[in-house]
TrEMBL record, chain A:
The keyword Electron transport applies. One of its GO terms (molecular function) is metal ion binding. This is Ferredoxin. Keywords: Electron transport, Iron, Iron-sulfur, Metal-binding, Transport. Signal peptide: none annotated. The keyword Iron-sulfur applies.
TrEMBL record, chain B:
Signal peptide: none annotated. One of its GO terms (molecular function) is oxidoreductase activity, acting on paired donors, with incorporation or reduction of molecular oxygen. InterPro entries: Cyt_P450, Cyt_P450_B, Cyt_P450_CS, Cyt_P450_sf. It holds the Pfam family p450. Belongs to the cytochrome P450 family. It comes from Bradyrhizobium lablabi. This is Cytochrome. It comes from the Bacteria. The keyword Heme applies. Cytochromes P450 are a group of heme-thiolate monooxygenases. They oxidize a variety of structurally unrelated compounds, including steroids, fatty acids, and xenobiotics. The keyword Aminoacyl-tRNA synthetase does not apply.
Length: 69, 406
């Protein structure tokens, strides 16, 4: 059984393409300028692991990290 | 943003693409994809003596390196043309480099978030249906002239808080600026003057009676020192939004319908599985990216190992990057449900398109409403599809027949 996942948006890399928010709104949110950050502490609830990786693999700026705890 | 200024009929035809490329050549306009493949096979960066010297990165990696490197590559000129006149008209943030770029951009971002676009969506759906009502009974239409052009025009008019019917004026001005303006400087100046006068009157009205539309939002914006923007800045931003937002989205919607008209399998799949739309829109943006930008080389450097010298321009082809097989498996195929898609249709790095959320919403809604009303359609063999030249690529004539072939 794999460990729990965490997502994190690198604020220096994010340019607000908003692909993550569109693909995984449970895990990502946007600020008033449309730049992304992870929801809460970035912990990925069970069942949303695929969405975390999908968001990561669609970020044009490679700004999303997915780590296993 | 289309660069009609670089369409010079006297350009000699290209015989050696690798050493003498020309993005205004009719062969490129008609079908650029095989050309990009040839260039990419030759080198990650190619050069032409045309346009007073211009490079083109041909791979996703090389495009990305240049887009990220604002030290060596300036946005002060964002169009590759035959001439390089003194820089007079600046259009922040698109022509800005750091550090001016960020504050100019941040003023424009809040009205274009996905949440703001959700509020606009019902109106855009209604616009699409009003347009379709006008031609559906004919059983055919030129989709570029009757449909794809009007969606972005009316949507931006609605956002700005001006009558949607005035959208026809925008079309006229943009035509004057981007097309007639090539050869006729008077037409260009006249269009800019009319456009500026039109918006200046709207600013005055709002000084008396504030509204809650995009024009008022820009008027209420404050710079980092808390000062309101000068009227000139507000007018400049309005001009940029129109010029950047209309023929780009017109092209994206048009290319999408063109693809669906000639690809029944994808069309049928989208009708049966509408939940695929978000992935499909990204894939259509990748495969038929409309916007090619430019940079000016400020200092000598290397890109993907290739030397690049100052004094040259760069044709920054996000569309070619998006066809790079090293980045996208089956890059030349439209894979309508492509899962992994880091396409660069809206740019990479700090100049990411301000209107990307708006453009995506307009594309999604325009395709969805069309498919609901006209699920079967094909290119009219009696007509001819024509493509715009220069830096924004999309169908400008798109004759369609509705219904099943029998
Ligand atoms: C499918 C439609 C569109 C495409 C493909 C597109 C593409 C692009 C691209 C590639 C850039 C990056 C320019 C660069 O790197 O130099 C850009 C910038 C920009 N776009 Fe769009 N665009 C579209 C629609 C829109 C719309 C609807 C608007 C607004 C109404 C808009 C406003 C802008 C602005 C203001 C910038 C400058 C951003 C900056 O320099 O930071 N675009 N667009």
């Amino acid at each position: 059984m794999a460990g729990k996942l965490k997502v994190r948006v690198d604020q220096d890399k994010c340019q607000g393409h908003a692909r993550c928010k569109s693909l995984a709104p449970e895990l990502f949110d946007l600020d008033e300028f449309g730049n992304a950050h992870e929801v809460g502490d970035g912990s990925v609830p069970e069942g949303l692991e695929d969405k975390a990786y999908l968001a990561q693999s669609n970020c044009p700026e490679i700004a999303i990290e997915v780590t296993e705890e | 943003m289309s660069d009609s200024a670089s369409i010079m009929p006297e350009h000699p035809p290209v015989t050696d693409w690798v050493n003498d490329f020309d993005h205004t050549d009719p062969t490129w306009t008609e079908n650029p994809f095989p050309i990009w493949e040839e260039l990419r096979a030759a080198s990650p960066v190619v050069h032409t003596e045309r346009f007073l010297g211009c490079y083109m990165p041909t791979t996703y990696q090389a495009v990305k390196e240049i887009a990220y490197d604002t030290e060596h590559f300036s946005s002060r000129r964002v169009i590759v043309r035959d001439i390089r006149p003194e820089i007079t008209a600046r259009a922040p943030p698109i022509t800005s480099d750091p550090p001016e770029h960020k504050p100019a951009k941040q003023l424009l971002l809040p009205p274009f978030t996905p949440d703001a676009m959700k509020k606009l969506e019902p109106r855009v759906r209604a616009i699409c249906n009003e347009l379709i009502d006008e031609f559906i009974a004919d059983g055919k239409c030129d989709a570029a002239a009757r449909y794809t052009k009007h969606v972005p025009v009316r949507a931006i008019a609605h956002m700005l808080g001006i009558p949607e019917k005035d959208g026809d004026l925008f079309i006229k001005w943009i035509h004057g600026i981007l097309e007639l303006g090539i050869k006729d400087d008077n037409a260009l100046m006249e269009a800019v003057r009319e456009m500026t006068g039109y918006f200046a009157a709207h600013l005055e009205q709002r000084k008396q009676n504030p509204t809650d539309d995009l024009i008022s939002t820009l008027m209420k914006a404050r710079d980092k020192d808390g000062n309101p923007l000068a009227d000139e800045h507000v007018l400049g931003s309005l001009r940029l939004l129109l010029i950047a937002g209309i023929d780009t989205t017109w092209s994206a919607i048009g290319s999408s319908l063109w693809h669906l008209a000639k690809t029944p399998a994808d069309r049928e799949r989208l009708v049966k599985e509408p939940e695929l739309m978000p992935l499909a829109v990204e894939e259509l943006l990748r495969a038929y990216s409309p916007v090619t930008m430019a940079r000016e080389v400020m200092k000598e450097t290397t890109v993907s190992g290739c030397p690049v010298k100052s004094g040259n321009m760069v044709l920054l082809s996000f569309p070619a990057a998006n066809r790079d097989p090293a980045m996208f498996p089956d890059a030349d195929k439209v894979v309508i449900d492509r899962k992994e898609n880091r396409h660069a249709a809206f740019g990479l790095g700090i100049h990411r398109c301000v209107g990307s959320n708006l453009a995506r919403m307009e594309m999604t809604v325009a395709i969805e409403e069309w498919l609901k009303r006209i699920p079967d359609f094909r290119l009219d063999p009696a007509g001819k599809v024509t493509w715009s030249e220069g830096t924004v690529r999309g169908p400008r004539q798109l004759p369609m027949l509705f219904g099943k072939t029998n």
